[in-house]
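User: Predict the complex with zinc ion.
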Amino acid sequence: MFSYRTGFVFDERFLAHDTGVEAVVKTRTGTFPVSPESHPSSSFIIQRIKEFLDGTGLTKRMFPIPARMATEDELAVYHTREYIAGIRACVAGGPLKGDWGDVDDETVLSAGSYEAALYAAGGGMNAVSAVLEGQVRNAYALLRPPCHHAMSNQAMGFCIFNNTVIAAHHARSRYGLERIMIVDWDVHHGNGIQDAFYEENGVLFVSLHQQNWYPKLAGELEQVGKGAGVGYTVNIPLPPGTGDRGYRAAFEQLVLPIGRQFRPQLILITAGQDASWLDPLAQMMMTMDGYRTLAALMVDLADEVCDGRLVMLQAGGYSAAYVPYCTVGAVEALADVETGIIDLYAGSAELERSQTILEPQTLDALAAARSWHRQWWKL
Ligand SMILES: [Zn+2]
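Assistant: Here is the predicted structure with zinc ion placed in the model:
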């Protein structure tokens, strides 16, 4: 048996992707300066998550998996070689767009960003290798920069290379896997992952996200895949205020039954803890307990269908105060450890509301998703 149940990827080099600060306020006629606030996707948040994992004792209960630099060939399973060169040039001060593609306004690059992005993509692949080679049963990869908005030739939504897509390709090409399930619980739609596998039936992509949110027009129910891939893209748009109970219901009514029918050989989770009730970039009202529950449900599914083989890859999450709690909750379920951490807002009415809310519009959204996806799955 495993001496460690769970592996853990982290590398200080991830933190060299420095997104800086925001120190001006825009008005209709110009801007004025203010005391700087961290960019929403600050390395500070990843650093705090690492400190929470250390402080709760979780890090030392996990098997350390080193990150490594992804090679150009490994990135090129999805990204164009022109784009990879374009990003390298951008980081050295080159233009943010060209024939090679572009970097959107929100995605800040710094001198350390290219190396960090290579290590993040390589770290995701190493986590997959550790699980598929039987070193550990499952793994958490605390990666930075995040990945799921990155397109083949476009950096967008704070993402540069698509770590999840690259990890899934790695599982197929190196280990010959034929069925991989990707569950993206980041509150935004994983448009890059959807794009990468849209015409394939060997990679099942399931995304839960806030409806009509970011990116615009991405993640609608009707986007189901193309050609052989029809039915293997499963979008589950949810209304603001879905909360712990609504998310749990979405897993019980859709994600788990679809997973049991697909029977993946590996599960990847694009784990963005930005559906929390304190997140500045969404309004979904999840709590630490909610994330622990979702992770536990996915661990059970992995036990049932693929000998527990599950890798979580860090995606978004923008509340520096609360994302670390939610991440600890998820990792507790992976590692089957209770750390005794107390929710930052334990006892507050806001927390209780987030844990108990279940609005009619959430039930309606779930019913609509079940009825739609019944075209391809028994639900
Ligand atoms: Zn997100």
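The chain has a mean pLDDT of 97.
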